[in-house]
Amino acid sequence: MDPRANYRTKQREMLIGYLKTVPGVHITASDVCEYFRTHGAPISQATVYRQLEKLVGEGVLNKYIIDAGSPACFEYVSADSHSGGEVCFHCKCEKCGKLIHMHCEELEEIQAHLSAEHHFKLDPMRTVFYGLCEECRI
Amino acid sequence: MDPRANYRTKQREMLIGYLKTVPGVHITASDVCEYFRTHGAPISQATVYRQLEKLVGEGVLNKYIIDAGSPACFEYVSADSHSGGEVCFHCKCEKCGKLIHMHCEELEEIQAHLSAEHHFKLDPMRTVFYGLCEECRI
DNA sequence: TTGCGTGCAAAGGTTTTGCATGGCA
DNA sequence: TGCCATGCAAAACCTTTGCACGCAA
Fold first, then answer.
1. Chain C nucleotides near the protein (CB, 7 A)
2. Which residue, A21, A34, A80, B93, is most buried by CB atoms nearer than 10 A?
3. Rounded Cα gap, residues B114 and B127, in angstroms
4. How far is CA B16 from CA B11, B22, B74, B82, in A?
5. Nearest beta carbon to residue B94 from set A66, A110, A126
6. How close, in Å, is residue A85 to chain B by CA atoms?
7. Which residues bind near strand D, taking a CB cut-off of 7 Å?
8. CATH architecture of B1-84
9. Which protein residue has its CA closest to C1' of D24?
């Protein structure tokens, strides 16, 4: 689907290798820089940003924009997600800022409904539900 | 519901007055600054940001984060939306940028489901569904 | 009079970019 | 060899903040 030539550089392999070890966890660009700096194999932030963006384009990572001013979050997409099996939704608490991951079949029906009735192809990776979490709703 | 004392300053009135004339349109902070600067009544950007954020807190405006690095978008909330009668959802096309307003009962069930099953109180005014619109989905 | 709102300028944080060098294919 | 990737630094960008002054209540 994406026959772009990608060089297998040391930095790219290190990045993918690391992100694979934390699937379903939100990582920021500076998190990545910090990780490699404290592990004796620093990668420049320019390279981190460029590779992360490239991996998003390839579908290897998801990118989430939670809030303005805050750094973007990246998350490794597990192999079984590629098979179309599970979709991950996100809920963001407006009060405490907590981010909740959700794997819910019922919510997947939203996609079908939006597609059939509103001719809109939902992008679950990009969509964030805002509201109040269990503790904050009182 | 919100007894905060809000001074009726000239800048605040001008801002609300302008935003009211463009309901359902996405406006950025710099758009606002530009508008008033070219109309002979400049408002400092600090004031624009502070007032916009305050108006969001009051429910007068909605704020949308479209993309990292891109400025936040603000949108005037019409009076009938305040009456609580109808809930308005938004779909934002990631490709052409079009914003689609939706009044759909079926989608309102999402709120009930999130509340009952996931203990999450959805805020429809703040939530935007991202994806591809009819023309862009091809 | 009180204290919030404003304006200016500077800072803060995230992300992008120019350019020379390095490394994969 | 050709060209993409990397690193460094600086720039670009949006947004927030400190402080003194102004103005609504």
1. 4-10, 13-18, 23-25
2. B93
3. 13
4. 9, 10, 12, 16
5. A126
6. 19
7. A 5-7, 9-12, 42-47, 50-51, 54, 68-69; B 5, 7-10, 28-30, 45-46, 49-50, 53, 69-72
8. Orthogonal Bundle (1.10)
9. B7
Q: Pick the closest to residue A89 from B89, B113, B72, B106 (CA basis).
A: B113
Q: What is the pLDDT along chain A (138 residues), one digit of tens a residue?
A: 444 568 999 999 999 999 999 887 889 999 999 999 999 999 999 999 999 999 988 888 888 887 777 899 998 886 555 444 456 778 887 777 677 878 777 777 888 888 988 899 888 767 888 888 888 887
| Domain boundary assignment for chain B | 1-84, 87-138
The single residue listed with the structure tokens 């400049």 is: B42
Is A117–B128 a contact, with Cβ atoms under 8 angstroms apart? Answer: no
Strand-pairing partners, residue B101, are B90
Contacts of A61 in chain B (CB under 8 A): none
> Position A51: which residue type?
Q
The long-range contacts involving B35-42, CB below 8 angstroms and separated by at least 24 positions, are B41/B14
The CATH number for A87-138, chosen from 3.10.20.310, 3.30.43.10, 1.10.150.130, 3.30.1490.190, is 3.30.1490.190
